[in-house]
Amino acid sequence: MSIWHIRESPTCAKKLWPKGDLSADDLVARSSNLKNRKSIFAVSLFWRHSPTPIPPAQLELLVEDFDEDYFESDGCYFVSEHLRQVMALGPSTVKYFDVDAGRSTPLVRSKKYKIMAPLVVDELSGRPSSAERPNKVTPIGDSASKEIHTQQGVVPSHELFSGKEFSNQILCTDFLAQKIIEAGCTGIRLYDLKHYNRGRKIFRTRHGFEESLGWDADNDVEITKPFEPSDE
């Protein structure tokens, strides 16, 4: 069974970047089209287990044709009403925080976004022992993250969760990934966690699997190629 890492798709991310040359402010604020820096968007990290109500986050998203079902901003995960209905997750699995999109475009308001926070942490990963490493050298930095691997035969207790070794990643099962793909939800990309943490971006589509090779800046398109399990 594969574990899938939920991310914003490159096409969705591209919609939120401003046109032309990027300034330092653009890189920090993500885009002049997405004005949320003054809001408390880190609620998904600090309030997910709190029973105390908090005011809705203020979202001002000004891209006229933006209608993705999923996007990320300031460490939070925004999900549309359609995506929430497709996932059909219970209150023991996920918590949703209200979003006030009153200053956004009509299309954005129609998506009825909420901030999604997974409540479950599953033990799915491990590191090789020092005896299994060449010269018993403990990896650090990028090498450490790439050496993390999912344990074989471990079944997640919930469809959506964070892994103990991957606290900043939202993960899901094959079953939930297939539901999302079949429903045609937009803005969301499902990467195979096993490959993702080794530096390869293998993702699911309705027709199978593909590998992302980067972005072609000249033609403004993502470069992908078909992926087969035999390519591993």
Describe this protein's structure.
- Strand 16 (208-216) and strand 17 (221-226) form a beta hairpin.
- The chain is an alpha+beta fold and 232 residues long.
- The protein has 8 helices and 17 strands.
- It has one domain.
- The protein has helices at residues 10-16, 24-29, 43-46, 81-87, 106-110, 141-147, 174-182, 193-196, and strands at residues 4-8, 34-35, 57-58, 60-61, 70-73, 76-79, 94-100, 114-118, 121-122, 125-126, 149-150, 160-163, 166-172, 188-192, 201-205, 208-216, 221-226.
List keywords for this structure.
five-stranded mixed sheet, 8 helices, alpha+beta, about 230 residues, globular, about 20% helix
Mean pLDDT: 75
Please tally the helical runs, counting DSSP H or I stretches of 4 or more residues.
8
CA-CA gap between termini: 15 Å
Q: How does the major sheet shape up? A: 5 strands, mixed
Fraction of residues in helices? Answer: 10-25%
Shape: globular
Instruction: Classify the beta-strand content into a percent band.
Output: 25-35%
Radius of gyration: 19 Å
> How many E-type strands?
17
Derived structural class: alpha+beta
Low-confidence stretches: 22-45, 126-149
Give the topology string: H per helix, E per strand.
EHHEHEEEEHEHEEEHEEEHEHEEE
Number of domains: 1
What is the topology, as strand order, of the major beta sheet? 9-12-13-1-14
